[in-house]
Amino acid sequence: MTIDSGKEHVPYSKLICIFRSKGGAKVKTAQSQVLKGHCLCGACKFELAGPHNWVGNCYCESCRRATASPMTTWIGNPNGNWRFWGIQPKTYRSSDHAERGFCPDCGSQLYYKSERYPNEVHFYAALLEDPAKISPSSEYHSEERINWPGIAVHES
Ligand SMILES: [Zn+2]
Ligand SMILES: [Zn+2]
Fold first, then answer.
1. Which ligand has its closest atom nearest to the C-alpha of 63?
2. What is the dihedral of CA 12, 28, 134, 68, to 10 degrees?
3. Ligand having the closest approach to the CA of 109
């Protein structure tokens, strides 16, 4: 597979965003911090420049089904502070106002954007090369959370 990592294939202006922080508080990250991430196969890459708008966990059914995971951790990043590299993501219209992007080769979810939140795009924190650089500080749609018992602790 050939990856043209030097070519920006989705202009900033083409991607508008997803859902926004209810709290509205900016996440305290260094202005200079650039978070890098990529899909499972590495064909789709992205960079997020700080400061990020918010980092939070979502438990909604839509995120759950899109990711096949009970919880999704998002980074809301303002337009103008993110960019994609590599191959063009495919998109799926997940509601009347929202679109989800994913890698056409490996299927990894890449972003969420919504006409309701036109000034930012939401990125999956679990795709970061170094997820420890951020920490979720808000929760969304807790009412849709799956009430599974906690993960068992294995004693050695
Ligand atoms: Zn991929
Ligand atoms: Zn959600």
1. 2
2. -60
3. 1
